[in-house]
Amino acid sequence: MKQDKKQKARELRAYGYSLNEIAKNLNVSKSSASIWVRNVALTKDQEKTLSRRTAKLSVVEKRRATRLARKIASQENLLNQSQKQIKKVTQNELRLIGSVLYWTGGGKTQKGLVRFSNSDPETVKLMMAFFRSVCEVPEYKFRGHIYTQPHINPRNAEKYWSEISGIPLKQFFKPSVKKATKSKKGWLSYGSFEIYICNVELFLKIQGWVKGIFAFF
User: Fold this and answer.
1) Range among 6-20, 71-85, 156-170 with highest mean pLDDT value
2) Is residue 213 very low, low, confident or very high in pLDDT (cuts 50, 70, 90)?
3) pLDDT in tens, 60-74
4) Where do the domains of the chain lie?
5) Can you tell me the distance from the alpha carbon of 10 to that of 27, in angstroms, rounded to the nearest whole number?
6) Buried-most residue among 13, 26, 92, 134 (CB within 10 A)?
7) CATH 3.30.1330 matches 91-214
8) Which residues contact 36 (CB under 8 A, 6 or more apart)?
9) How many CB atoms lie within 10 A of CB 187?
10) pLDDT score of 183 more than 50
């Protein structure tokens, strides 16, 4: 198989193919292609062909880079314009957002326990604003709980989520370490975070807000 590829590489080189093209065509490294064709002598016509192909590829690559840059700029512009459409969030809007987020990611089985879990720091910040501003939860009522993997330092994760949520470390439960079921590569650096609030009235309030929202649809 290797000899076949080597022979094919030499033939492609003789036709005026560049090292990058040969490597791509044969699915080999550029260094291997270079070694295989280093003794291939090219005629003046073949050298001209190679020069023209290289110049053509350079133009194609520049065009591709230009198109990509335009696409990225267009997407960035769309993102910025969309962001500007969001004005200051009112108290009632925060109530709606927080209630729906809770209903999609919060605990609904234990009536006396309000708990919300997420691994996205911005979502956690938003929910803490909802609990503090809309729900008026006293600071001493908050409890934090982290879920990590064996490769994550629990102490570092606790410090991280404490800074994100504003909940003091002394109000954190003992971390839960889940057994890794796949490569470390797929896991977040600080695990996930769960907010706990023991309050029956708040649980019922949020449930009522959610029902009120759903009643419109």
Assistant:
1) 156-170
2) very high
3) 777 888 888 888 889
4) 2-83, 91-214
5) 15
6) 13
7) yes
8) 5, 6, 9, 10
9) 19
10) no
As a whole number of angstroms, the distance between CA 27 and CA 85 comes to 48
Provide the 10 A C-beta neighbour count for residue 177.
Answer: 16
Q: What burial class does residue 157 get, using C-beta atoms within 10 Å of its C-beta: 0-12 exposed, 13-18 middle, 19+ buried?
A: buried
Write b or e for each residue in 94-117: b if 16 or more Cβ atoms lie within 10 A of its Cβ, otherwise e. Answer: ebbbbbebbbeebeeeeeebbbbb
- Structure-token pair, residue 61: 């690559």
DSSP 121-161: HHHHHHHHHIIIIIS---GGGEEEEEEE-TTS-HHHHHHHH
Task: Report the run of H or E that residue 115 belongs to, with start and end.
Answer: strand 113-118
Render pLDDT for 101-116 as a digit per residue (tens, 0 to 9): 999 989 988 888 999 9
Which phi and psi (to 5°) does residue 208 adopt? -65, -45
Beta bridge partners of 195: 116, 144
Q: Which amino acid is at 197?
A: I
3-state secondary structure of 89: coil
Residue pair 111/137 in contact (Cβ under 8 Å)? The answer is: no
pLDDT at residue 61, as a whole number: 76
Q: Which pLDDT band, with edges at 50, 70 and 90, does 186 fall under?
A: very low
